[in-house]
Amino acid sequence: MNISTVFLGLSLFGLAASVNGYFRLRLPGPLMVIEFLTGWLVGELAPQMLFVQALGTVFFVQAGALDAPSGQFALGLTALSWCLLAGVHRRSIGTGEEFRTALAPEGITPEGGVSPVHGFLKPFGYKTPGVRVERNIVYGEELPRDKGGRNLLDVYLPTEAKQGDCRPVLLHIHGGAWMIGDKREQGIPLMTHLASRGWICVTSNYRLSPKATMPDHIIDVKRAIAWIRSDIESYGGDANFITITGGSAGGNLSALAALTANDPNFQPGFEDVDTRLDAAVPVYGIFDFLDRANDRGANKMGTALGPKVFKCTPEENPELWDSVSPITRIHSEAPPFLVIQGSHDSLVYADEADTFVRTLREKSRKPVLHAKLTGAQHAFEIFHSVRSAHSVRGATAFLEKVYADYQSERGDDR
Fold first, then answer.
1. Is 204 a catalytic residue?
2. Which domain holds residue 364?
3. Is residue 101 part of a domain?
4. Is the bond preceding residue 110 a cis peptide, omega within 30 degrees?
5. Of 2-16, 152-166, 235-249, 400-414, which range is least confident?
6. Is the pLDDT of residue 413 over 50?
7. Is the Cα torsion angle 343, 347, 353, 359 positive or negative in sign?
8. Domain total for the chain?
């Protein structure tokens, strides 16, 4: 195989990835996962991919790839890929304006100052000055169907935090289709940013399917809330002000927890604990397992989740499926919500968030804000990127506004 043919093959691959990152494809079945993975990496690492493709092009040109028509064609494909990557990155930069628009109805303005190459050199560099982490704290007894370590949580806090500080608290719930995932893997950009601004952030594990069966997952989330109520003051947190966030399955569980305060069915053995939450920021969450609005079309989740997560079909136990679908638990006393969703999400369609927000706004007396991010894929905020940075600042601005209102209502000058 000559150098021109190799250049052509790699150019075709790069262009396919760029097309997937720029356009919303919604491929069926197993192709959905491929669409997600390539779209996710292109969407958040477009500058890095542009750089790599440019270096590769220089190499192939110097190696004589343009001597053959196939090499010249490959150069044209590469140029087209660069144009698409530039468009992808331009959308990421525009995320800041999308958050400003989403938060404006409540008079909230997120911080700006995000560099257009934010995270270019260290997308996975999570160490933050002034923030420390207390790991593997037991939040409750180890329960049946625990694979090990699922009753543990981590606390991200300012290095100077101490008992009695009474700082605002955020609980983060990881995603992973209720079957995989760990507290160490997600939400770190947001938690470290908030901790650097004085917040106490908790991230907890929960029992996972197929060993665990719904509603084990949400019960464990409630157990983590109960731990915060009883123990967070020793870390400098305010046990009376707790907010929640999470992505994907964590988005489902965070929204569900916010809408089911003090539900005894989800608090077996600790029914008397107050599990009310002051705000929720679900990110690309699943809000209706049964897809009543037909937002997912042919790509339903029930068939895949039934045997492993629920151990039953919706027909066999409709009450269970309804009870853990946040859209069925909406009520007028819901806390403030900021729903964040990517328009290009191939695992959880943006239409589902649209339906949830519309329904929540019809009933809730509190603010319901919705940031729909153009071009964003699933898991877009897991590591540092331009879009992730804007998302962190948007969520921070929302949470700090809720906290300021809480302090004002209490007449608290802290």
1. no
2. 108-410
3. no
4. no
5. 400-414
6. no
7. positive
8. 2
